[in-house]
Specification:
single chain, alpha+beta, Glutaredoxin, 5-stranded mixed beta sheet, transmembrane helix, Thioredoxin domain-containing protein, disulfide bond, redox-active center
């Protein structure tokens, strides 16, 4: 598989798709100005243990009856919309013990940021907060990164120091803020992103954000409100 991915910008209600084959599929599915996510159902899912091993962060009780894998890029506008639509419901389900989330932070939109590496730095910052704080602080920081998402192709994006201050606003400790400010987990985030990208392609036949997997299989309708989550939770009683 080529190491060079060409993300295609889409409307705010669609996902980002990577890869030459996926790009051809995408072109064929443009309808009324909206780009819909196509998936290769023949590829099957990936092993649950593999998804757990390469997750950047895991939030929620191991005993939760439902586990999902969420693939995001902090530079992705559609991911921001997904967070705005479903973030609160996901957090509530985590907090009441009915959901466990394995977060996979992808970084293919680095080149859309002014610094050229914002996606990766933000993923590293999230790992700092996830490793050093409780789930409530991480959940707030995760949401805050999307709330403060820089514009694609803009003139600036948050520095590590900016993200450290944002972490402080969410209640992060001095040690965690230092981790964010120094970019201590950036390399770790890059490695995790590469592993997650590979697993996502195996699961869905392509790489795109946002994507949600349940049982290693793509979940449909994630950009249409929280009905997808309601259905998953209802299936588990």
């Amino acid at each position: 598989m080529s190491e060079k991915y060409q993300p295609r910008a889409t409307s705010s209600r669609t996902t980002y798709i990577l890869g030459g084959v996926a790009a051809l599929i995408v072109v064929a599915l443009v309808v009324g100005g909206l780009l819909w996510n196509s998936r290769d159902d023949s590829g099957g899912g990936v092993d649950e243990a593999v998804l757990s091993e390469n997750a950047a962060l895991i939030i929620g009780e191991p005993s939760a009856p439902q586990t999902i894998d969420v693939f995001e890029d902090f530079m992705c506008p559609a991911c921001r919309e997904f967070e705005q639509q479903s973030g609160t419901a996901i957090t509530q389900a985590i907090n009441n013990g009915s959901l466990r989330v394995r977060y996979h932070m992808l970084t293919f939109l680095d080149d859309r940021s002014a610094s050229g590496d914002y996606s990766t730095r933000a993923a590293g910052a999230a790992q700092c907060v996830g490793a050093g704080e409780d789930k409530e602080v991480f959940e707030r920081f995760h949401a805050a990164l999307f709330d403060n998402q820089p514009e694609e192709g803009g003139d600036s994006d948050p520095s590590n120091a900016d993200m450290a201050r944002l972490a402080a606003d969410q209640g992060a400790s001095a040690q965690t803020r230092e981790c964010v400010a120094t970019g201590a987990k950036v390399a770790e985030a890059q490695e995790a992103a590469e592993q997650s990208r590979t697993q996502l392609e195996k699961a869905s036949g392509q790489v795109g954000t946002p994507t949600v997997l349940s049982g290693g299989q793509p979940v449909d309708g994630i950009m249409n409100g929280t009905g997808w989550l309601d259905a998953l939770l209802a299936d588990n009683g």
